[in-house]
Amino acid sequence: MLAAGVALFAIAAHAQVAGSVSLASDYRFRGISLSDDRPSAQASISYDPPTSGWYAGGAVSSARIDQQTAAQLLGYAGFVQRLRPNLSWEAGVTYSRFTGHESYAYAEAYAGITYRQIVARLYYAPDYFNSGVPVLYGELNGSHALHGNWYLFGHLGFLRRNGNLTMDHTSRYRSDLRAGIGVTLKPVDIQLSWSGVHGGHGSGYLFGYPVSNEVTRDAWIISLSYNW
Question: Which residue among 34, 64, 99, 190 has the highest number of C-beta atoms inside a 10 angstrom radius?
Fold first, then answer.
C-alpha cells in the first residue's frame, strides 16, 4: 500500500486528497502473507499539497495475526522533490501497528529515488515488528504500459536482518519478488500477480512476522481496487 501511494506522489501530483478501497485474495507484505493466505480488504487515503513537496497518508487492512482476525493500521509522511523532469528523490517515515493484545508496532525511515516509472527505496527499522531486531529493506518497483489500459508491474525486495543469529538457526537474508499484469477501467483497477519469497529459513517470527507456520511462500494473487 505504501509503495503504491508514495510512487504516486513521486511521479505526479494530481490532487490534494486521494483514496482507494480494495479487495485482494491474499495480503502479502514483502512476500509474507499477513492474512494467513486468506482474502483481505484494504482502504487508504492520502493528502498531497501540490506545490509543497510534503505528503502524508494512512491505510487500514484486514489481517490474521497469531491466528486471530485483526486490522493493520499504517500511517506515513514524507517529502519529495524533483531533480529533473523525470527524476525525483524522497524521504519519509512510516508507523504500523495491529489491533489485538499484541500490536507488533514499529516505525521505519525511508529514502528513495524515482526515475519515470521506476522507484528504488531503502528502509530502516530499528525494532522490526517490535521484535527487538533492526532490519534493512531495499526495494525496486516498476511498471510498463501496454496496449490500451493494460500494464505490467513488478517488485523486487531484499531484507537484511541484523543482530545475533547464533541461537535462531536462520539466515540473515530474505528476498521477495512480485510480478503481474493489470488493467485500468477508471476508477477501477484489476490486477493478477505472482508473489514469492526466498531465503530466511526458519519461522517467520524470527524476522518479526506474526504469521502461521502453514503460510505458503508463493502465491497467485488477484485484486480489485476502486480509486478516487
Answer: 34
Residue 41 contacts by C-beta under 8 Å, 6 or more apart in sequence? 21, 22, 23, 61, 62
Q: Which domains does the chain have, with CATH numbers?
A: 2-227 (2.40.160.40)
For the four alpha carbons of 9, 11, 17 and 23, in that order, the dihedral sign comes to negative
- Phi and psi at residue 205, to the nearest 5°: -60, -25
DSSP state, residue 207 = G
CA pair distance 207, 187, nearest whole angstrom: 37
Instruction: For residue 2, list its beta bridge partners.
Output: none
pLDDT digits (tens, 9 = 90+) for 92-143: 999 999 998 889 999 999 999 999 999 999 999 999 999 888 999 999 999 9
Closest CA to 200 of 31, 64, 67, 63: 31
pTM of the model as a whole: 0.88
